[in-house]
């Protein structure tokens, strides 16, 4: 496995791969501290492509002033071992100065799909996401890029970015990887106390209950949202940040014509804010 931290090195290697016509290149962008969810993305990319590249970069532009950029968990040596075991051919792990070495000449703004869910309370977050991914997509020139469905809003925004600027690549969403009790794998789970860890799986249980309610009772979106919220409020030692039920991937209010529905929630514990979601196809009323 090749390990590099300079843009010019990444571009040279990718250009050589392309010149060899060795098949498709799969790309997995990450912020490191890899867990089974990330490894599932790498393994999926390995199965689909001749070459697999992974980036490990804690992107400062997607963190707000009061967010956890400085304390975000980092362990590069461990990440490199895990990426190698999962089948990566290359890991690109640049310093922030390599990606943002000067004052920006062009800035990017994500203008849709961002004023709901996590985007509502994190102004500028998705501007940072589309900025860094535009850079990474140009550097790595992938044929396919892999993202977990746990952050379904991010997937929706990235699809919009790729469509808007005609990037010649395919976005591959991969199902959320979960613990045995249903808790979505997340780098932030390490910040849960023992008691919070026992309570956290109730997020997913509440979302599943909301989907079941929607299938049996055929309620409107607000009724589904209220049903999920009531369930989430039973979680001890936590505060519900939001619950929303929207059309997916547009992330707009549900209408009679909406077919794909997302129910998403964010819950704050003492040391971690966890997100989860369920997406389903609405049956005919």
UniProtKB/TrEMBL annotation:
<feature type="binding site">
    <location>
        <position position="154"/>
    </location>
    <ligand>
        <name>(R)-pantoate</name>
    </ligand>
</feature>
<feature type="binding site">
    <location>
        <begin position="185"/>
        <end position="188"/>
    </location>
    <ligand>
        <name>ATP</name>
    </ligand>
</feature>
<feature type="binding site">
    <location>
        <begin position="148"/>
        <end position="151"/>
    </location>
    <ligand>
        <name>ATP</name>
    </ligand>
</feature>
<keyword id="KW-0963">Cytoplasm</keyword>
<dbReference type="GO" id="GO:0016874">
    <property type="term" value="F:ligase activity"/>
</dbReference>
<comment type="function">
    <text>Catalyzes the condensation of pantoate with beta-alanine in an ATP-dependent reaction via a pantoyl-adenylate intermediate.</text>
</comment>
<comment type="similarity">
    <text>Belongs to the pantothenate synthetase family.</text>
</comment>
<dbReference type="InterPro" id="IPR014729">
    <property type="entry name" value="Rossmann-like_a/b/a_fold"/>
</dbReference>
<comment type="pathway">
    <text>Cofactor biosynthesis; (R)-pantothenate biosynthesis; (R)-pantothenate from (R)-pantoate and beta-alanine: step 1/1.</text>
</comment>
<dbReference type="InterPro" id="IPR003721">
    <property type="entry name" value="Pantoate_ligase"/>
</dbReference>
<comment type="subunit">
    <text>Homodimer.</text>
</comment>
<feature type="binding site">
    <location>
        <position position="62"/>
    </location>
    <ligand>
        <name>(R)-pantoate</name>
    </ligand>
</feature>
<feature type="binding site">
    <location>
        <position position="62"/>
    </location>
    <ligand>
        <name>beta-alanine</name>
    </ligand>
</feature>
<keyword id="KW-0067">ATP-binding</keyword>
<protein>
    <recommendedName>
        <fullName>Pantothenate synthetase</fullName>
        <ecNumber>6.3.2.1</ecNumber>
    </recommendedName>
</protein>
<feature type="active site" description="Proton donor">
    <location>
        <position position="38"/>
    </location>
</feature>
<feature type="binding site">
    <location>
        <begin position="31"/>
        <end position="38"/>
    </location>
    <ligand>
        <name>ATP</name>
    </ligand>
</feature>
<keyword id="KW-0436">Ligase</keyword>
<keyword id="KW-0566">Pantothenate biosynthesis</keyword>
<dbReference type="Pfam" id="PF02569">
    <property type="entry name" value="Pantoate_ligase"/>
</dbReference>
<keyword id="KW-0547">Nucleotide-binding</keyword>
<dbReference type="InterPro" id="IPR042176">
    <property type="entry name" value="Pantoate_ligase_C"/>
</dbReference>
<feature type="binding site">
    <location>
        <position position="177"/>
    </location>
    <ligand>
        <name>ATP</name>
    </ligand>
</feature>
């Amino acid at each position: 496995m090749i390990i590099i931290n300079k843009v010019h090195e990444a571009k040279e290697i990718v250009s050589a791969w392309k010149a060899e016509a060795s098949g498709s290149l799969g790309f997995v962008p990450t912020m490191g501290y890899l867990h089974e969810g990330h490894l599932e993305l790498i393994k999926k990319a390995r199965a689909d492509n001749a070459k697999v590249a992974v980036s490990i970069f804690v992107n400062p532009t997607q963190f707000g002033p009061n967010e956890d950029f400085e304390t975000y968990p980092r362990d590069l040596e461990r990440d490199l071992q895990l990426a190698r075991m999962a089948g990566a051919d290359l890991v690109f792990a640049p310093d922030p100065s390599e990606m943002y070495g000067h004052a920006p000449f062009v800035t990017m703004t994500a203008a849709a799909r961002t004023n709901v869910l996590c985007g509502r309370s994190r102004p500028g977050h998705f501007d940072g996401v589309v900025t860094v991914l535009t850079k990474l997509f140009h550097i790595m020139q992938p044929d396919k890029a892999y993202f977990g469905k746990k952050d379904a809003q991010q997937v929706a925004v990235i699809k919009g970015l790729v469509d808007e600027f005609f990037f010649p690549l395919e976005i591959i969403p991969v199902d959320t990887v979960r613990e045995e009790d249903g808790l979505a794998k997340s780098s932030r789970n390490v910040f849960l106390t023992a008691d919070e860890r026992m309570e956290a799986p109730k997020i997913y249980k509440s979302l599943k209950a909301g989907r079941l309610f929607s299938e049996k009772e055929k309620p409107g979106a607000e009724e589904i949202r209220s049903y999920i919220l009531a369930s989430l409020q039973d979680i001890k030692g936590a505060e519900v940040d939001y619950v929303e039920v929207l059309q997916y991937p547009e992330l707009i209010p549900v209408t009679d014509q909406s077919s794909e529905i997302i129910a998403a929630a964010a819950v704050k514990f003492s040391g971690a804010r966890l997100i989860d979601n369920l997406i389903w196809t609405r049956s005919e009323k």
